What we know:
Two copies of one chain form a homodimer.
Chain A: E1 5-11, E2 15-22, E3 25-33, H1 42-50, E4 60-64, E5 79-80, H2 85-90, E6 93-97, E7 100-104, E8 108-111, E9 117-120, H3 123-133, E10 141-146, E11 151-157, E12 160-167, H4 169-179, H5 194-207, H6 212-216, H7 218-226, H8 230-253, E13 258-262, H9 265-277, E14 281-285, H10 287-305
Parallel strand pairs in A: 1-4, 4-7, 5-8, 10-13, 13-14
Antiparallel strand pairs in A: 1-2, 2-3, 6-7, 8-9, 10-11, 11-12
Enzyme class (chains A, B): transferase
EC number (chains A, B): 2.7.1.58
Pfam family, one (chains A, B): DGOK
Amino acid sequence: xxxxxxxxxxxxxxxxxxxxxxxxxxxxxxxxxxxxxxxxxxxxxxxxxxxxxxxxxxxxxxxxxxxxxxxxxxxxxxxxxxxxxxxxxxxxxxxxxxxxxxxxxxxxxxxxxxxxxxxxxxxxxxxxxxxxxxxxxxxxxxxxxxxxxxxxxxxxxxxxxxxxxxxxxxxxxxxxxxxxxxxxxxxxxxxxxxxxxxxxxxxxxxxxxxxxxxxxxxxxxxxxxxxxxxxxxxxxxxxxxxxxxxxxxxxxxxxxxxxxxxxxxxxxxxxxxxxxxxxxxxxxxxxxxxxxxxxxxxxxxxxxxx
Amino acid sequence: xxxxxxxxxxxxxxxxxxxxxxxxxxxxxxxxxxxxxxxxxxxxxxxxxxxxxxxxxxxxxxxxxxxxxxxxxxxxxxxxxxxxxxxxxxxxxxxxxxxxxxxxxxxxxxxxxxxxxxxxxxxxxxxxxxxxxxxxxxxxxxxxxxxxxxxxxxxxxxxxxxxxxxxxxxxxxxxxxxxxxxxxxxxxxxxxxxxxxxxxxxxxxxxxxxxxxxxxxxxxxxxxxxxxxxxxxxxxxxxxxxxxxxxxxxxxxxxxxxxxxxxxxxxxxxxxxxxxxxxxxxxxxxxxxxxxxxxxxxxxxxxxxx
Lengths: 306, 306
């Protein structure tokens, strides 16, 4: 039975999560800054955080996410789609930090379903993890969604990631909430209300995603004319953006029975609700579980081939 | 012949433009801060700017725009659509500043073509001005567009403003340009390129406005994978947003032969180009000329009825 000790991590733009694993068990977890918030070099930040974990004698560390971008530790060029776990593992970049081998998982590039170029970093590892956790996803054609700043829809076919499509839903919402006049009528940063969200979903379903920007202005007009509360307004805006994203995905993916949502927290729950509103069953996979399973899959492939 | 002296002004959120008129001639023009950038009270700001114009003996001042909102000088409640020049004139609020009568034009509210509430302040005066300047607009059904932070599409039928629809196109573009990762790959604030704009129009026409948010991410992916320049990227993003706005307007307004664009500068030119790309002839009316003509129309109605 494998009892090897490995440090695994998801180092994204806004946060770093590191785990110390022995075999299949997680012994410790530590959090650190994302690559856009570093005050030291990536190497020093990493080594400071790892600290006494070195005493456990880890064989190596493996990291996915923005750490492999130009703004990260070292660039791990995108692997093209379609991509299997083996192909992604084979393209990991190997470096070293104070004697500890470090492997950096590449991101993925593709021609997306709209015929445009697209990129991801970190989500590929979560998708591989979902395949590892759920055998049903490893055969046939499936749609997965990874809610976030740059929301990703991914298609897997017989265990390969064949294509994906990004929409900056979380980023657009955050900008409008923080800086736009749509939030006027109250300076509250309160989370959007459930009632507002449901109303936003209904409006976009009635009018179609092609009218998104025009419906967005209702967020302001309803506050001015109908005394809509700031919490309802922010829920409404969130419902419009997520509803439009889901409608567009249904449009290009075609009929679907089920979608796998990878993530956790309120945002993943909103996607489950938006999918349900269009008659699609969504099953959720925990984001941390997916990234851990994905990093295990990649290391197994690497160890088998090295 | 009317040789009365009047101070007229368009006092919006971001700027104040004041003109001293004698009959139909503009004698002087002065600029000041918008209502969101005031350091003094609206009354003091106004009187300081008017200054020596008082010596010419103006009968009164008339102002349109955000000056009539809750955040302005005094609230002039929205007039409901459909609205004629006479109905708007009748709802002007009358106040006084150091002995000078001041009239504040109300904004308009409506149920917009998507069945939602909508509002405008200032654009109603420009629309009335366009009707005054172009007799052909005073009979039949016409579509007008007023490009800006909150872009307005307005329907006029036999001289009445019957409905309108707002989309926060300029605001969304400015937020994405200033704060989002879509602008990454270069910190340039350069205006978008013409080539990028044309490419954005083509992409949204191919894919449909319902895929706007997904196409937005191409702005980033093309910079990362295809070395798209920042200027092309910002033009591309602008083409997507304006193209989606135009497509949605065509969708609800129905077949149209011509559209009147009220405004000036690069943004109005981009709308003319986007409309031409969908086979619609656009004629442009200068924004300053429209607001001056609109304020004349309103004062004539007021003076006739008072």
